[in-house]
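Today's session is about reading a structure prediction critically. Students often jump straight to the picture, but the first step is always the sequence itself: look for stretches that repeat, for charged clusters, for runs of hydrophobic residues. Only then move on to the predicted structure, which in these notes is written as discrete structure tokens rather than atom positions. Here is the chain we will use throughout the hour.
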Amino acid sequence: MKKLLIICTLICQTAAVFAQSPNITSGIKALEAKQYDEALEYFNKAIIDEPTASLGYYFRACVYYEKSDLLRAMSDVNTVITIGNESEKVEKASGFYLRALIYLQLNDSAKAMADYGSAIKTYDSDPDFYAGRAQLYYEKKQYEKSIADYQSVLGLDGSAELAYAGLARNSLALNKYDEAIVYSLFAFDVNPQNDVNRELFLSCAEKNTAFAISRMDILTKEVPENDMWWFYKGFFEQNNAEYRNAIETYTKLLTITQNPNPMVLSHRAFCYYKSALYEIAIAEYDKFLTDEWMDADDFGFRADAKRLIGNFKGAVKDFSQAITLEPNEAWFYYRRGWVYDEFLHNSKVGMNDYNKAIEINPYYAYTYLHRGKLYKNVLKDTQKAKADFETILKLDTELNEEGNCRHYALLELGRETEAIEWMNKILEKYPNEGNYYDAACMYSAMNKTQDAQKYITLSFENGYKDITHISKDNDLDNVRQNPQFKSVLAKWTKIIETENKREIKKYSNNGTKL
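Below is the predicted structure for this chain, in token form.
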């Protein structure tokens, strides 16, 4: 809370007094303008005029507090509390409140808590008093008490975004994610321009994306003209890997706004890319990547889409543009190095890019994997290759939903049994299409055709659609010509190509020309 907010309630409650106290009125104006020395002069005069009235002492304490002169502030606020009579409840309660803030500055939370309680007991109609104590309860992890105080705030001010945000944080701490999403949504709805509210809303939504989407479904039905809810519906669907649903939502948003917003087009293009609809993704990126919109990530994703359709020179050009815009992003160097190394067979330039990526980010395991393979298979430097694979074992120690690399390093180091054990753990915890695909690649590298066939089938059955990548992935070269494996690929290629043609026809109506 901004320090000057501590005077707001008092200003409202004592407006009649101000009309009779020109020094108080002028002092408050100076205080609000942060003209502290001038404010002190006015409040000093007010105290001289009325030495037994608490108002001058209170506001002078505010000035001292703003100037971080806590000793003088404490002295004046103690006077307010001591001389405040029955008719000065607001001033006395505000004194307790201000003293609580002073104690917090002095790292005495116990006395601050006591003063918050005294402020509420003296005058129980100011939401700031409850809000201050609620925050302190939250910091002490006394979440239920914090929730009760924030509910009291709402009882006094039903639109208090601070209370909704506080309830969201407490619910989040109690792992009540659905409640956290609802409360953070209220706070965000009250003031969508507040970045803190927005970040709280997004952090709560991450905990249960499906529930967040359901709330957006309700809001887009209740207020279909509100483009903000359509955007967040698409955004949450995108984060939940519901890419084709997100495409539909972003398309609806663009229809409502009648505005080809580059940010929305960027999100929709990314969803096309993640849906393995690379041609339409590239066409979408082409629509908005202009001198007016130069985003490194967009160039990077368009580059990767070009890589996946075999346009390797185009991929290099886009990765290079991404690097120009964001020269400290390791992923762009890693990905460009991969194109040079594996597809354009320029191992020297590929190695330079891998080295640069590792220099920027020495913790990304996949760069070491590709550099290690380059050392091993092309440069025949087994010692450096081994060092890279062993680095992966130090970096990749946890099971992840995607992007696992440890099993490949174990395989390259000749530790097949451990590689299989690690992959089994991954699949037990995260049985998704990407990890099934990695398992197929691993077993292909082991020349275990039946296992590779089993896992590539499971990958397709769980939603894998990237037949373009499969056709070019050298990790599958060992089994690609096996009749049974070819049959599985042919079957699913036909299914996915048919589906993609239908989707491309549908999406071409979204205004993206192929």
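Discussion point for the tutorial: The CA atoms of residues 322 and 338 lie 15 Å apart.
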